[in-house]
């Protein structure tokens, strides 16, 4: 679960609901599309706030930056039906979002973790006219076996226990494993509120996708789009060496952010922003 370092939006950024052909989505929107627009898609249990630390540097570089809560995530909401969160449905949402944002120059799309699988599916199945695709901390197929076991526990617990009880169980597990960092009270309250805002059926459906995702690298390699594979130098969901190999198979640019783990956008936002700006710029061709 990504933990934003702050909840304070940079000057000029605003939160609102983006109207699309597939419904309205809660977004954070910063900057002006001098060089283009960036759509940032969060991961499993994540939200638009995971990208707060990237908004200012990307906006200052000349990009309109739109971070979104996907269907069933945090403040967007969605139906209590697992079928609504099939990967094809979530991919179609991303295409609709980019259609709404189009007309303001090139559109660069980034997917983090689960979001990487979703934007990959959109690129393969719909071939939208994106200028580039960034897959961040997201691998070629299903997550690592140990993480599959943890995710399967979550998927099986939600229907039986409910959101509140599962939240407390996750907190207890973190404490027992000494995995709980010092979190500012406002961020801790946000993390709880975000978790409770998720639609349980969305978590169950997307958790199953993380466990069962097939290898679609060859399909993406056939799509004519510039691609960046970016990650931290440590990752327990998709080990960095898996991403090294995926980048080779894609013929993609590969960037490893030193000192970051599964969420470079949170853990090393300055270096992550620099890598994105360099890739998006014309000299990044």
UniProtKB/TrEMBL annotation:
Q: Name one GO molecular function term.
A: hydrolase activity
Keywords, alphabetical = Hydrolase
User: Is the Membrane keyword given for this protein?
Assistant: no
Pfam families per UniProt: Abhydrolase_6 (PF12697)
Under the heading InterPro entries, the entry gives: AB_hydrolase, AB_hydrolase_1, AB_hydrolase_fold
Show the coiled coil region(s). none
**Residue span, AB hydrolase-1 domain:** 39-275
Its protein name is Alpha/beta fold hydrolase
Please report the organism this UniProt entry assigns to the protein: Streptomyces fildesensis
Taxonomy of origin reads: Bacteria, Bacillati, Actinomycetota, Actinomycetes, Kitasatosporales
